[in-house]
Amino acid sequence: MSKKVLVTGCAGFIGYNFCLKMLKEGSSVYGVDNINDAYSVLLKQSRILNLKKHASFSFLNLDLSVVDNLDSLEKSFDVVLHLAARAGVRQSFINPEIYVRDNTLATANISNFVNKNSIKKLIIASTSSVYGDSGMKKVCEDKDELTSPPSVYAATKIAGENIAKTILDDSTTIISIPRFFTVYGPWGRPDMSILRFIHWIQSGETVRIYGNGEQKRAFTYIDDVVTALGKLTDQNIPGTFNIGSDNLNTLNEVINLIEKKLSKKAKIKYLDKAYRDVDLIMPDLDKAKNQLSWVPLTSLSEGISNTVEWCKEKIDLLNEIDYLYDGEKSSNEN
Predict the structure, then answer these.
(1) pTM score
(2) CA dist 2 to 21, 121, 293, 326, Å?
(3) Concatenated DSSP letters for 196-241?
(4) Catalytic residues
(5) Alpha-carbon separation of residue 133 from 128, 185, 276, 282 (angstroms)
(6) Second label for 240, Cα 20 to 30 Å away, from 47, 120, 142, 147?
(7) Local structure of 13: helix, strand or coil
(8) Domains observed in the chain
């Protein structure tokens, strides 16, 4: 069923792909983004250009941390999907103030907007980073969140979750909070491992790995994430949900898959472990499976294959993108 949807962070990786899904299904999508420089602005602009090809897409370049800016938004939406945030765990230690502004303050402002306009549904994107290192234990929603998260990024995201729930506590708005686990795929972020590894191996550059490469992640393909968001949009189910993969893989395993797909051997440089990087994050998916009827369907091998093919198609664009953020250009961080 078509809807009128507000998507903040529409120029971001997940926001862009979700907008495409909604537009293809006939919904009217109002996208908001401030095109921040947490990673390549060129990539974000390319996503927006693609979205603008759809007649039912409208775009506003807007900084949601400035409360008066929200006055320019329409007031009536079936659902607000708040994906806008400043991305990057390691980068968040460099300038914490920007992360508080773009993540926590912006989330407070959008929550107030939803409350004042009696919007029925708010979906707030969050992160697996709020759990820290899980060890061999699966992390569970509303139980395993850390009171002292391991990064500024995680602290600003959990603060945003709590502020939104407090603001809307006495309202009739349904709040759903998906927490994403290491999302990858076409149109992905160049500051995250898989897109970087593909680019570096394809171009013959040295692959930078921080630590021994045995860190494990629940790599989650973008199509599975978009499906989960679609279920949250279509159903009136409040709560927090882990959205991740059933399977854990190491960075070394990821590189092996990319090597096979490209038929090229990686030149790898192992560096010191990144500051406060976790070794393992394992999601408990029972809640998402039981309440949302959602399961991740895409294997890492299939997802990487799809991403490599996309990278080949977009090689001219991807060759123009910077894969190192400012803080790691001097320290050579992964």
Answers:
(1) 0.95
(2) 11, 15, 21, 41
(3) HHHHHHHHTPEEEEESSS--EE--EEHHHHHHHHHHHHHS---EEE
(4) 153
(5) 10, 24, 10, 9
(6) 47
(7) helix
(8) 4-183+219-243 (3.40.50.720), 185-217+246-280+298-329 (3.90.25.10)
